[in-house]
Amino acid sequence: MQKIIKELSELENKTVAVVGLGKSGIAASKLLCSLGAKLIINDKKSKEEILKDLITVNGKIERIIGEGHPPEALENADIVVVSPGVPLSTPSIVSAVYKGIPVIGEIELSWQILSLIKENVKIIGITGANGKSTTSTLTYEFLKRDGKKVQLAGNIGYPMAEVVLKLLNKEIDMEYLVLELSSFQLEGIKTFKPDFAAILNITPDHMDRYSDMKEYIEAKAKIFQNQNGDDYLILNMDDENTISAIEYLRNVYLKKGKLPHVFYFSRVQNVYGAYLKNDSIYFNAREEVSDDIKKEMENTVLSVSTFKIKGIHNVENIMAASLLALCSGCKGQSIKDVVQQFPGLPHRMEPVREIDGVIYINDSKGTNVDAVKKSLESFPGNVILIAGGRDKDGDFSALKSIVKEKVKALLLIGEAKHKIADALGDLVPCYLESDMKSAVIKAKEIARAGDVVLLSPGCASFDMFKNFEHRGEVFKDIVNSL
To answer: Fewer CB in a 10 Å sphere around the end CB: N or C, the chain?
Structure first.
């Protein structure tokens, strides 16, 4: 696959359709305008709402098409840039592909432009169903502590196009770019190639977008489709679906003739990479890596008891981030310094308050079934679980065993509350609540000293809240008002 943009000057006066005007769509529009492109803006929002979003975009906007994605919206485009929230199966996009119009995502656009601005920036790409934001932030913090010029972008809320535009305008400099990448973002890549890539886990998520798990795994595996023998790939040995993605490495070998250096992380077995033993993380290097990397890996041991963030899932996140950093040339001491101080991110197993011996935890980012399972595994028991929201076609019956073992009561809210109750409601006391406030009040009523009230919804937030951050803030505000 050849790049669409071979020279920056090629974009001048090209007609580019930007489909979807979320954060990445707005950032892509700004970047394209700065290079002289003419834009067609298409979004499902009204034209009035789109105009408000475009206030900060200065450039040539030829047409604005709102209220959906009609086929004629993309007819005159030379290139189509699709935001991750818009499926590539959208009829107007399918029609554009059929007509031979190049269709790419914001990550691919940004990558192609970045490679023309500054060739030697090392890209670290991180994907997975759960843990992406924490692992990406940890990797960024490790490299920053090590004195490297590093930026953080992607699905974490800071679009790659925005970073590339700042680099273009000489507002920043960087040697490394850490990218959190969702499956939606990976769908739109063509030539994008991270120097270092990690798949943290692949568990059922977004099944309302993908036809089956095979399609979801294929989307995640795209992160390494363009890697070669000079690159590094980090995989979770304990996750069956992640290991199944290895079959797609055959395609890499057939295209490149070489495979990336593959390392694993595991909580249960000694592997080439990072492994957990006696409450410490050890690193085991392959022979083919440089002597400096091998020496640093073998001399680095991380004691879990020194980590500021807790939870077995965070041990996995730290293993993955440490491997990415060490393979990037980071010193083990820099990693040790950060894990002793890093408090974690908001809305991810975030302690809120203790009231009468009851601890309240905000895990609003737990938006799928496996995330809830990992969160519950972090507690010995006596958990009052607040769950529910907009279903993503999750299989809540997969939580039966862990609910029996760890959960004292279920408090269910949102559109999915009846589905969750049907799957789990006969295992423990179950209450269907009208909103977050009534759920928290009920939790306080039934909780006793030693219990944990955990918000880990297992669902999207959009039925009742703007996003998972809003949901978490509402939960914290209610808890702090008790």
So the answer is: N
